[in-house]
Amino acid sequence: MGLPDSEILHLVTAISRELVCLHESDGTYIYVSPNSENIIGYKAEELVGKNPYDYFHPDEKRLIQERSHQPLLRGDENIHTTFRFLHKNGNYIWLQSDNRLTIHPTTGKKYLHTSSRDISEKIDTEANLALSERRFNTLFHDSPIGLVLTGKHGYIDETNDSFANFLGYKSFEIIGKHFSEISADEELEKNLKYRDEVQKGIIDNYSIEKQYLHKSGKKVWAFTTVTVLRDEMGHPIHYLAQIVDINERKKTEKLLLENNDRLRSITNSVLTQNKQLQAYNQIISHHLRAPVSNLRSLLDLMKVTDNLEEIKEFENHLDEVTVTLETVLSELISTLRIQNPDNYKPEPVQISQSFSNVIQLLKGELKDKEVEIQSDFSGRESIFFSKEYLDTIFLHLLSNSIRYAHPDRKLRISVESFQIGSQTAISFSDNGTGIDLERYGDQIFQLKKTFHRHISGKGLGLFLIKYKIESAGGKIEVRSKPGEGATFLMYFPDGREII
After folding, report:
1. Which listed site, 214, 329, 380, 459, has its alpha carbon 20 to 30 Å from 250?
2. Tell me: the pLDDT tens digits for 95-124?
């Protein structure tokens, strides 16, 4: 046997989350569902005969009257209202109500039917969310630090004026752009690498120093920290980037590096000059003192003899000593002359043209020796250097290769240029007799040093080459083994930064 309809209605309304009420046309409660205590704290019997206007928030009574109560009595249907209602505990709660007019079929009397639910938690959540959004917007847009919010595909959803001004834009001009459109090309790969790690969940944030593209086209430096915002499943939905302008710091760093380079160059120059002074002292001590001493001895001997044959022999010795003295003085003058800064006149120099000029000067010797030469200057065609210096460098290197060619094989020379960072490098290699660097490595570029007893040499060429290159801020290295030839690597900076 089934339950009576009245009991079914009571059970259903008792467990429902909806507060169902029937009102007189003035609002007085006629019926209140038994679940009222769970929703508004009052038992049904406490409300029957009472008017809900006694429980409405004072600020909303008039609105309810005008926007819900009166329209219902005029025949409007299904009016929805949201209002505050005084809970029995003394606090106001938010109710959302569906209201409609009901007319008795026999008497024609008007009644009001309401179905209400507690939405206080929803209202509080929305209020907190709105407050949070207001706070976020205030912090976001008023922040002195550049802030950018991008979607998971990298398109900019929001930015503040600080970042827009940093790049010379208005905020609306940046929104909708892909971050790659405002990033310098060389920074993209690094940025994408980090983003890939974020998407894979390896990291949640990262920081990099990167360059952005200013609206004017110039590149500007910033320290960027990117934080990922994920959904409930852990998938990235947004990226928040904080961008700090570090242009001034980068300028300072560059200036410090330049000053360090200049200081290093000055230090190297002082060290080189000290070594050169030692070399000059050696020339004066050994190479000049001996001829001068011989001259004095010969002159003293000539004073004490009347023998014509002896005098003739002394005169021959005088000629030999004089030639030796002239040679030493000439070499000393040459080394002093190249140190005069007025002699260094840098200009754009075609490397291939300079090399060809020297080839023509040595054409006869190269042909007689059947020298094979390979050259490739496509890696870097020109340098900012002294044309006279470069010609002299090639002349000394080619002359040395010919002089120290291996007797058992045809001489082969290979020359090429290439770029290393901001420097131009020239490699000069031969398959000659080579140099014992383990024995002579620390003397290779010193003045008046020769390393092949069976071959005559002045020991001046490599010294001059090193000085000419270092005078422009460059450097020279040598790689060699006895019997296997030698390779000279010469590095030339952008001379316009040195001058």
Report:
1. 380
2. 999 999 999 989 989 999 999 999 999 988
Q: 3-state class of 381 per DSSP?
A: coil
What confidence tens digit (pLDDT) does each residue in 437-476 have?
877 656 666 655 554 454 444 456 677 788 788 877 888 8
Question: Is this model's pTM higher than 0.70 or not?
Answer: no
Per-residue pLDDT at 16 exceeds 80: no
| Helix (H), strand (E), coil (C) string for 94-138 | EEEEEEEEEECCCCCCEEEEEEEEECHHHHHHHHHHHHHHHHHHH
- E strand map for 12-78: 19-23, 29-32
Contacts of 117 (CB under 8 A, 6+ apart): 17, 18, 19, 39, 95, 96, 97
d(CA 60, CA 94): 12
425, 489 Cβ separation under 8 angstroms:
yes
Q: Identify which has the larger pLDDT, 63 or 314.
A: 63
CA pair distance 31, 24, nearest whole angstrom:
10
Phi, psi dihedral angles at 58 (to 5 degrees): -55, -35
Count of beta carbons in the 10 Å neighbourhood of residue 275: 14
Q: Provide mean pLDDT across the span 399-412.
A: 90
Tell me the fold of 143-245.
Beta-Lactamase (3.30.450)
Q: What's the Rg (C-alpha) of the chain?
A: 48
The CATH architecture assigned to 346-498 reads 2-Layer Sandwich (3.30)
Which CATH number does 5-119 carry?
Answer: 3.30.450.20
Comparing CA positions, the residue from 451, 458, 449 lying closest to residue 436 is: 451
